[in-house]
Amino acid sequence: QVQLVESGGGLVAAGDSLRLSCVVSGRTINIYTMAWFRQAPGKEREFVAAIDRGGAATFFAGSVKGRFTISRNNAMNTVSLQMYSLKPEDTAVYYCAIARNPFSSVQYHVSDSYDYWGQGTQVTVSS
Which long-range contacts (CB under 8 A, 24 or more apart) does 46-55 make? Predict the structure, then answer.
């Protein structure tokens, strides 16, 4: 069974930084695109960032580009999201996801491209 477990969320002040981690078990991630999505209260889940299987290509939502970075450690089967200059509008539950299909190109911003998700970790940014 594939499981993704996120950690690192919390309550921070605007302008602070936070690092989220996701540990994957049951599937070796080195051939899969990985991504982070988030869902704020009353809003739909939205794409945040993705990283291709080798880590050479990264993709970001416009709202976080320049403030967030995504990385992966295939040897440890983990993916991380480093968040800088956090804003109150970044408040959400953050989810880690693994692509449905290995090797093939992925519509990285589309949630249906991913078949397993973590339970989420809450990030709250106070103003």
Answer: 47/108, 47/109, 47/110, 47/111, 48/81, 48/94, 49/81, 50/106, 50/108, 50/109, 51/79, 52/106, 53/29, 53/102, 53/103
* One-character DSSP codes across 40-73: -TTS--EEEEEE-TTSS-EEE-TTTTTTEEEEEE
Average pLDDT estimate for 30-56: 95
Band (pLDDT 50/70/90 cuts) for residue 52 is very high
Q: Rounded to whole angstroms, how far apart are CA atoms 123 and 67?
A: 15
Burial of 51 (0-12, 13-18, 19+ CB in 10 A): buried
